[in-house]
Every structure is written in C-alpha cells, then in structure tokens.
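Q: My labmate handed me this sequence with no annotations at all. I'd like to see what the chain might look like in three dimensions before we decide whether it's worth expressing. Could you predict it?
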Amino acid sequence: MKDIFDKLAQNMGPLGQHSHEAHGYFTFPKLEGEIGPHMNFRGKKLLNWSLNNYLGLANHPEVREADAKAAQDFGLALPMGARMMSGNSNHHEQLERELSTFVQKEDTILCNFGYQAMVSAIDAMVDRHDVIVYDGESHACIIDGVRLHIGKRFVFKHNDVEDCEKQLQRATKLAEQTGGGILVITEGVFGMRGDQGKLKEIVALKEKYKFRLFVDDAHGCGTMGPNGGGSGEHQGCQDGIDVYFGTFAKSFALIGGYISSTKQIVTYLRYNMRSQIFAKSLPMPLVIGALKRIDLMRKHPEYREKLWEITRALQGGLVEAGFNIGDTSSPVTPVYLNGSIPEATNMVKDLRENYGIFCSMVTYPVIPKGMIILRLIPTAVHTHEDVKYTIESFSKIVDKLKRGEYVSDTLAKVQVDL
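A: Here is what I predict for the chain of 418 residues:
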C-alpha cells in the first residue's frame, strides 16, 4: 500500500514538476501596483499584456468610487448565507434583470464564481439518459463539468461543424434509445486561440437535429457585438443560444458570473445548481460594483471601440511584421512560435528583464511539444505607443530565437519564491 502523500510527492504533475525552477517568476508571478498596461514586477515597471481588463474598467474612477462606497456601506459579509436561504437582496435581483436585458434573455441567475458555476450548471442540466456533445478545445471548466456527467458524451474537433454534425448523429441515435436529450456545449470566444466558436453554424444544425446549445462566452461578453452583448450578438444568432454563460472576471474586471436563459430554465437552475444552493451568495460590493460596470458599458460604447482600435493595431502590426497570430477574431492575440520549453523561458526572461514587457507564456502540456505561444491581451487603456514598442521588441527576440540564442537544456535561471 502507498502513502498518498508519497505518491503525490513523486509525481507533482506536468506543471508542478517545474515549481522549484519557476514559482514566482514563470508561474504565480506577482504583478503589483495599479491595474493597467504598466505594472511592477520584481521591482521593475513593465508593459503588461497579461490582464483581461478588456475595457479598462478596473481602475475607472467611477468604478473605484462605487466599489469603495459599497464596501463601506455593506462590508464584505453581506449577504450572509447561500442565496436560497438568506443571501438574496434587491440589488442581486436588479443585476439579474439588467444582465438579462444586456444579453437578450428572459432571465438570469447570478453565480458566486464562474468556473464552478459552469461545472455545476452542466451537472444540474443532464442526467444519465442525456448525451453531451462538446468542442474538443473547450475551457477546463467545461471539461470538468462534462467529466461529472455519468451518461454518454461525444467530443467534436475544434470548430469543425462537419464533425459536430457527425457527433450529433451519434448522439441522436443514442438519445433515441435512452429517451434522453442532447446538450451541445461550446465557447463564444476561445481564450487561448482567440477564435470564435461556430455559433451561427451550430445553431443552423437545429433545423436537422434536436438539441439545446450552451455557450460559455467569458471572453465575448462586453467585447463582442455592436452593444457588447457577446459572440451570439456579434454573429447574429443570440436567439439560438439556449443557455448563455458570462463571467465578471474579464470585461467587468470583477469576480463571479451569471447564466441567462428562459425564465423556466433559470428557475430550474436556481433550485438545482449545487454550487449556488450550498455556497455563499455573491457579496454586496461585488453586486453593486457589477451594476456600475454594466451601466458604464451601456453609456460608453467608446471603451469597446477603443479596445478594438488597439486590437486591430496590435494584430495588424504583428501580421505585417511577419508573425503568425493564427485565426483569432477577437481581442485575444496569440503569437505562435517554434521552440522548446527551456527556449521559451529564456525568451520570456529576456522580454521581462531587458525589454520591459510582461506577457503570458504558453507551452506543453497546454499546447503540443515544440510550440510556444506568447499570449497578448489588448485593452482599451493600452496605447499605440505600447503596440509599436511591443512589435519592435518581439521582432528582436524572435531574431534571437531563430539564431539559437535561447537554446538550453534547462529552464532559465531565476530566483524562485518557494
């Protein structure tokens, strides 16, 4: 018999095995100072492309004032308890109404944390007779929710509508045998690649197959569509999305999430989502803060316009400079490079120490071996000067990468915080 602690210590996992070389620098870095395009990292001010503060609301003076006043008026404890038992308020219900209008759905349930809400909603909506069909590159919260499903599930190749239909055919045959239904799950914007889910094409499949569509639009809410209503609004198929999930962790620069659908389905979720029934309600300052943020989104479309102005400048400039940014059609901007994990760490260390740029590095096991992604998140508070300097700096470090200056057998040497 093994001791569980011994087993874990001997296999720290694909990322954990590097903790003694990476913690505090490549993993779990500490960005300090005011949230924005320039923040402090280890005593140096860096140009930051690694925050999902899409609309620049994190430090908006009206947002800071509303957050501070709500904390002063209510504290962080109120409401004390789960929503169903003692954690409801007029402010919670007002926010749900305003979110419903924002994403063009009948009703909305607030969720205390986005990740667990997605997991819990999937778990609540399907039983062993039902079949799930989902995109192969879905976010981890979707994957974890699907794992809880004790019935059958089929995965389709990323954004491959033909394969999605093939899996729907398999799911339909099985559901006819079990007497269950079919739930299709995908994303509005995929957070790693930046490409949009094929929502319009999947909705069109409803003409041939009977299913309900659940869309995680964490990166699309607030950024996509003429009114910021999300990827379905952008693609003109919001009505075809049966269950819509949005988060406060991106455009809202907050924490928490929400799920919007018909009144009947939202009522069902209120009484059946275990992560909401058995967990504390979203604290009042977060609710009032979200109300202020959605008000600013409605009144100031120029924030979203500025985000897209910077996005187009960054993505267009990278492509013009010869970089591969894949097929992104959202602000998420991946820069694809070839190299090993040690090369990636040496390159990122050079970027931070000598060029003053902080961006996320993605390597194996998140993506295939031999590939590196430098992931940039433009915001409405970045400038064209930020864009120009970044492209110039990237051109220099990629030249170094091609010349083999980052080749190494080990990760870049940094002082870790463990």
